[in-house]
Amino acid sequence: SQQGEEDPQALSIQEGENATMNCSYKTSINNLQWYRQNSGRGLVHLILIRSNEREKHSGRLRVTLDTSKKSSSLLITASRAADTASYFCATVSRGNTPLVFGKGTRLSVIA
Amino acid sequence: DAMVIQNPRYQVTQFGKPVTLSCSQTLNHNVMYWYQQKSSQAPKLLFHYYDKDFNNEADTPDNFQSRRPNTSFCFLDIRSPGLGDAAMYLCATSSDRYQETQYFGPGTRLLVL
């Protein structure tokens, strides 16, 4: 069953701009993860944020988590053409269930 | 480099003809997962192994089976592929269940004729 819903479904920006993607989920979580998938390839883990954390950074990535609103956002700063990919949020719910992925946001960065 | 390898990358089979997809890992992880991903959709977990303990998702069709002969290898068997089984099949691993980052292979794209 699907837990996360990403918004928007698709996003197109110019190189150098920032990209923000949002994820909402339904049940209480242990952690939330973001993954990237280039076209026709496997998924690559980007960042994991635990339920007791509010913000994490990794390079040009910034993830926030608001457990009261059951939502997370992924910010990619100074985007590059190589950032073009689909981005998925995935959650591990309390009670320890396997990762459940949302439908993803397709990001296009135009050079 | 430690990694997850899937073979073949592309597989063409005929309707009803059994097919096996393979996955191997050099990460020495306890957990291995199989996902099905159809175009523009989220990856859907089919089943996972925690060491030798097999865990099937409730809505995984009986047509799909898996084997894990040792820590490094895991196989996905589709006994009688239908047209609806055409998809990307992703193998992933993690060091422990539920909590941890998953490491994905490049996927096998299955086409059913």
Structure description:
The complex is a heterodimer of chains A (111) and B (113). Chain A is mainly β. Chain A has no helices and eleven strands. In chain A, 0% of the residues lie in helices and 58% in strands. In chain A, the strands form two sheets. In chain A, strands 2, 4, 5, 9, 10 and 11 form a six-stranded mixed sheet that branches. In chain A, strands 1-3-8-7-6 form a five-stranded antiparallel sheet, with no helix packed on it. In chain A, a hairpin with a 6-residue loop joins strand 9 (85-93) and strand 10 (100-101). Chain B is an all-beta fold. In chain B, 0% of the residues lie in helices and 51% in strands. In chain B, the strands form two sheets. In chain B, strands 2, 4, 5, 6, 9, 10 and 11 form a seven-stranded mixed sheet that branches. In chain B, strands 1-3-8-7 form a four-stranded antiparallel sheet, with no helix packed on it. Chain B starts with a strand and ends with a strand. The mean pLDDT of chain B is 93. The A-B interface holds A 2, 30-31, 33, 35, 40-45, 48, 88, 92, 96-104, 106 and B 4, 6, 33, 40-45, 48, 88, 90, 92, 97-99, 101-107, 109.
